[in-house]
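Hi U.,

Before I forget, here's the chain from the pilot set. I'm dumping it here mostly so it's searchable later in email.
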Amino acid sequence: YGKNTIKFLRLHREGKKHFVKEVEVCAHLRLTSPQEYLEGNNSLVIPTDTIKNIVLVLAKKNGIPSLEEFAIDICNHFMTTFCQVAYVKTYVQEVPWQRLHEDGVPHIHSFICVPDGIRFCEAEQCRNGPLIVFAGIKDLKLMKTTQSGFEGFYKNEHTTLPERHDRILCGELFCKWSYGECKDFDFNCIWKKIRECILEAFAGPPDCGEYSPSYQKTVNSIQMHVLSRVSQVQVIEVVLNNTFYNVVDMKNLGLTNDKEVLVPVEAPYGSCACTLGRKKFFEA
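Structure:
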């Protein structure tokens, strides 16, 4: 049991310069006894309102240097404070506020919410067990207008999809990875590096791009690029929900439409998912 959707803004001031973190937290506990379920005995139950207040107090006292460190703080607090807690799991996601710039100069106290993907993390721990930390990005919308195709696929009497060697590749990406044993990581730096890897693998070189023969290959390319560049990542899951675009037929309007006006296919849409990890992790 636990408390969902604990939303708050943490404001940090350094002189005249302000820093913000707006987050949403879910904190769930499992107790050493199920007596509250079986017997209606609430003597071990930590009220969910108390859970909410603890999260807010930790944010006030410790700040939020990174989502991962804040999630670890929450896990550690419940494990070290309450002997009846057998398991704790914390989910934290961030509202994507970015500092506003005017003529290239960063503003000291103004921000803009930019929908370029939502950062999140999870931390979980069993009593006498290891602390496990996951992190990720979701709702990241990506598009490239060429260097993508889909050919040579299996066909039978139910196949109506034509082969395409030049199409728009567009989708909404969800990516989640695990760190394995957490050491003294700079979580903010690692997250930014992984996000850069995702964009590099999706787009290819800026002057020419890189051909994608399928959404599946793009998913794998992202995973391989992250694992090759970021040693702290042990397992990475990627889900790419596809958005397809159809060229509008303008012949009746007396116009030739050379893939200049397209409309999105809202539903149904495709989805590709894969989990990839280091061999040593799975062997362990």
